[in-house]
Design a protein that fits this description.
Blueprint: H1 2-22, E1 25-32, E2 35-41, H2 49-57, E3 66-73, H3 89-105, H4 128-132
Antiparallel strand pairs: 1-2, 1-3
Length: 137
């Protein structure tokens, strides 16, 4: 029972690990001066109120205080998918010898005869331990 639970837990963990190692995403950050205003993952970062004011001012001066940074986190894109034919001859021999020795080591247990299988205990009328006042300590 515990072995089956651990096997399923480990399999689920490995599947999630492969999923998250291959996912790519972007982080967009909006700075006003040196202050971080908003950071967003998968969506566009919200702009500050100063940017609308800067668009009006840009006609007069070309200096902007707001800036956007885009950080791309790339996931792994090269997964190795191997097939049974890709392993070497020595690995084939090891796998087959392991399987052969494992399956031959398992023996069926003989059917044991239980002599008291259909035995019905006698009907107790009185509790003898209480009557004799004999108790296990």
């Amino acid at each position: 029972m515990l072995k089956q639970f651990l096997h399923k837990t480990f399999s689920a963990f490995m599947a999630v690990l492969v999923l998250f190692s291959t996912v790519s995403f972007t982080v967009e950050k909006h700075f006003c001066g040196d202050v971080l205003i908003d950071a967003a993952v998968f969506t566009e970062a919200q702009k500050c109120k100063m940017e609308a004011f800067e668009k009006e001012q840009s006609k007069i001066t070309k200096k902007h205080c707001c800036k956007d940074e885009l950080e791309v986190v790339k996931g792994q894109d090269k997964l190795k998918r191997s097939q049974f034919e890709d392993i070497t001859f020595e690995q084939h021999v090891f796998v087959f010898s392991f399987i052969y020795s494992y399956t031959n080591s398992l023996e069926e247990l003989p059917n044991l005869i239980v002599p008291h299988k259909h035995y019905s205990p006698p009907i107790l009328i009185d509790d003898i331990q209480v009557l004799d006042e004999v108790f296990l300590i």
